[in-house]
Design brief:
Order of helices and strands: HHH
Helix content: 40-55%
Shape: globular
Length: 69
């Protein structure tokens, strides 16, 4: 998920720091939404209802378009 969001792999370490992991999860969810061409509202949906919004990305018409390329 970190790589799909376009973030560096060392961010995985930040998941083990209390409180910081919440902020990192928000940034990763927003990065995933952005890389699939969705907006901030969709990123909020990934944060609060991932069991609904992740399958929408998986089975919908959204395509992965990383910003780094």
């Amino acid at each position: 998920m970190i790589k799909v969001a376009g973030k560096p792999g060392w961010w995985l370490v930040l998941y083990f720091v209390p409180i910081v992991n919440i902020v990192i999860e928000i940034l990763i969810a927003l990065g995933i939404a952005r890389n699939f061409g969705k907006g901030t509202g969709f990123g909020a949906g990934i944060i609060f209802l991932p069991f609904i919004f992740i399958p929408i990305l998986a089975f919908g018409s959204a395509t992965y378009q990383p910003e780094n390329l």
